[in-house]
Amino acid sequence: MIERIGVDPKTPLPLAPAVRAGDFLFLSGQAALDETGTIINGNIAEQTELTIQRIVAVLQKCGCTLADVVKTTVWLDDARDFGAFNKVYAQHFGSAPPARSTVVSPLVVDGKIEIEVVAYKPV
């Protein structure tokens, strides 16, 4: 069974914040957006922190936590931000981090980072 979670018909973007497919949960990429949908002007550490907090919020709506995350894909706008990003990321994922891919790429939004998540939690 496939369940689309958090779809809002008022949102102009054609995506679901999360999709559950069996025991897997796929989160759409998250960025450092404030409550108005605007990218914050912070540095990479601040943008990474907000991005992870947004991921936590979507996971919570789906009955999951960061401990359920099995894979992340991270896009950084600037390779020089990798060290500062990695420090914040490590604070959240601790001693049992998920598998991860990290690439450098221009982003569609005017931010420094985007993170996509796959979680596993048996229904």
From TrEMBL:
Pfam families reported in the protein's UniProt record: Ribonuc_L-PSP
Gene3D superfamilies, per the entry: RutC-like
Residues in coiled coil: none
GO cellular component terms attached to this protein's record: cytosol
Cited SUPFAM superfamilies: YjgF-like (SSF55298)
InterPro entries: RutC-like_sf (IPR035959), YjgF/YER057c/UK114 (IPR006175)
GO molecular function, one term: deaminase activity
UniProt cross-references to PANTHER family, sorted A to Z: 2-IMINOBUTANOATE/2-IMINOPROPANOATE DEAMINASE RIDA, 2-IMINOBUTANOATE_2-IMINOPROPANOATE DEAMINASE
Record's protein name: RidA family protein
Lineage of producing organism: Bacteria, Pseudomonadati, Pseudomonadota, Alphaproteobacteria, Hyphomicrobiales
